[in-house]
Specification:
Elements (H helix, E strand, L loop, with lengths): L1 H19 L3 H13 L4 H13 L13 H11 L1 H6 E4 L4 E2 L3 E8 L4 E7 L3 H16 L11 H15 L2 H14 L5 E2 L12 E5 L9 H6 L7 H18 L1 E3 L7 E6 L4 E6 L5 E3 L2 H14 L7 H7 L4 H4 L6 H8 L1 H4 L16 H9 L3 H7 L2 H20 L5 H16 L10 H8 L6 E8 L2 E9 L6 H4 L2 H9 L4 H10 L5 E8 L2 E7 L1
Parallel strand pairs: 5-9
Antiparallel strand pairs: 1-3, 2-3, 3-4, 4-6, 7-10, 8-9, 11-12, 11-14, 13-14
Helix pairs in contact: 1-2, 1-6, 2-3, 6-7, 10-18, 10-19, 11-12, 11-19, 14-16
Length: 512
């Protein structure tokens, strides 16, 4: 059985190569469709390929478990859940490790029930060994790829995904870190969940692939708020939660639009593939972005080595890192030169950047990185795919800098700071008296916007205020730039920044 699967994986590659003689697109589609047929690691690889190539991996799949099998598994694994179910949908969403059924409990609550495919743990162990063995025969072998550390890491992470108790814990932790920010996480029902079954609140949303059709419908317009939420979600994950979602394929998040209150929410699902970041890694990632933004002057090889990269493998490409790294990190440092510059996600192609600057030696960079960095890149790839689906320019640097400022400030003792921007250097070196900058916009009794940012984000106060409000503030003789500089000169003391009304909306900004 094991040998036959290994041959099948190899056979997929042979068939793909054959099809590429006629059409690259048909070859990639064959590869994606073939991998999607196999639960576990193959289906996850298919999702990554589809996001990089623009192919659709979200086509409808037939359930792998019949409704009778699902009911039997629920009765066997979670009798408490079986006793609570009023009705169960027989039209599931099929994922790489499970299928999800909508249900209604006797209490009237709608829930999502995630049921794992049987025998998956054993299947994954074999799949990881086979795929890593195939990778060791790829071009990566020439550049020092070793399968031991990668195989162990991937196996541990994928097996962790098969324990829904781990997923529930991650989900609760992530939910607490984004509470009140417009990012919605389904609520886990622990008393009904088990290792193999996860029960959570049913949360409706519009899939990212349908956003362009939504934009074209009568009365709709910009998706700028959705783009801001996506950037905020990634920045909060890295620099506040220190916990990143590593499976941001288009089936694992969506958007809710409340037209009456002009409110947008980002709903995130499936917290099985998560990566926790230590405080030291978070500080170094902030330092890496600051280096790409030309705000500090650390050596690229030293920074990457501190993150776990193999310094010997970086030596052949060391001279090209000053050009490569800022291009690779462009979304997170664009506009850092002192003016607001919106980043267009459709014009950024990290794979092309790597090919153009590093060429065949890109494998030195790929094999030099530690396994955890693979999961971070997987997160950024999924996030970027979503940003392209939204297709709206966004001032990503403003959001990222506000979130990462505390981590960057605390990283200062780890290396020299060569002042590229005296004002920023002075700001991040000075401890602030407040912890948070808060922004709320209310309309009647409804809260339209509720932002919680690090206090250092006060430097970006002019960018946080809508243009029409900023013009009204200016007409009243207040200059937001001078206001922000004056507050920073006093180390951002706690208290109100400004408060005003515009029509039916009330704006309030304060430090605490």
């Amino acid at each position: 059985m094991r040998l036959s699967k290994f041959i099948k994986f190899s056979g997929i590659g042979i068939m793909t190569a054959g099809k590429s003689a006629f059409s690259r697109t048909s070859a990639k589609k064959y590869l994606v469709d073939s991998l999607l047929e196999q639960p576990g690691l193959p289906a996850k690889i298919a999702q990554l390929i589809s996001m990089r190539t623009g192919l659709d991996s979200q086509h409808a799949e037939s359930p792998r478990l019949s409704i009778e099998e699902i009911k039997a598994r629920i009765s066997e694994d979670s009798p408490a859940l079986a006793g609570e179910i009023e009705s169960l949908s027989d039209a599931p969403k099929v994922a790489s490790l499970s299928q999800v059924h909508e249900a209604r409990l006797k209490s009237g609550q709608r829930v999502a029930i995630k049921i794992q495919f049987p025998g998956l743990a054993t299947e994954i162990e074999e799949q990881v060994d086979d795929f890593v063995s195939l990778a060791a025969r790829s071009p990566a072998k020439t550049f020092g790829f070793t399968q031991d550390s990668w195989g162990k890491f991937l196996k541990e992470k994928l097996l962790e995904e098969t324990d829904y108790r781990c997923e529930a814990a991650y989900q609760r932790e992530f939910s607490a870190s984004v509470h009140g920010t417009g990012i919605i996480v389904p609520q886990v029902m622990d008393h009904l969940s088990t290792k193999n079954i996860l029960v959570q609140s049913w949360e409706e949303s519009t899939p990212p692939g349908e956003l362009q059709a939504w934009r074209r419908s009568p009365g709709q317009g910009s998706l700028g708020t959705a783009a801001d939420l996506m950037v905020q979600m990634l920045a909060r994950s890295l620099f506040q939660a220190n916990l990143i979602h590593c499976d941001l394929n288009p089936g694992n998040y969506g958007f809710r639009f409340d037209h009456a209150r002009q409110k947008t929410e980002l709903v995130i699902y499936d917290f099985g593939a998560m990566q926790r970041l230590s405080q030291e890694k978070v500080k170094l990632l902030a330092r890496l972005i600051a280096r790409a933004s030309d705000q500090v002057d650390d050596d690229w090889c030293d920074l990457l080595h501190a993150l776990g990269f193999d310094q010997e493998k970086l030596r052949p490409i060391a001279a090209r890192l000053p050009k490569f790294m800022p291009a690779l990190l462009l979304p997170f440092c664009n506009g850092s030169s002192g003016h607001s510059a919106k980043w267009n996600p459709t014009t950024w192609n990290p794979g092309q950047v790597m090919d153009e600057i590093l060429g065949a030696e890109k494998w030195w960079f790929r094999t030099a990185g530690p396994p955890w960095f693979l999961y971070l890149m997987r997160t950024i790839q999924g996030w970027h795919h979503g940003m392209k689906l939204i297709d709206e320019p966004v001032d990503a640097w403003r959001i990222f800098y506000g979130m990462m400022a505390p981590a960057l400030a605390s990283s200062m003792p780890t290396g020299p700071l060569r002042k590229k921007d005296d004002r920023m250097a002075d700001q991040i070196a000075r401890p602030l008296l407040s912890n948070h900058l808060r922004v709320t916009v209310t309309e009647g009794r409804d809260t339209v916007v509720a932002l919680e940012l690090p206090a250092a984000a006060i430097e970006n106060l002019p960018d946080l205020v809508p243009d029409d409000v900023a013009q009204k503030i200016l007409a009243q003789g207040m200059n937001l730039r001078k206001m922000a500089d004056e507050i920073l000169s006093r180390s951002a003391p706690q208290g109100p920044v400004f408060e005003m009304s515009q029509g039916t909306r009330h704006y309030r900004v304060w430090l605490e």
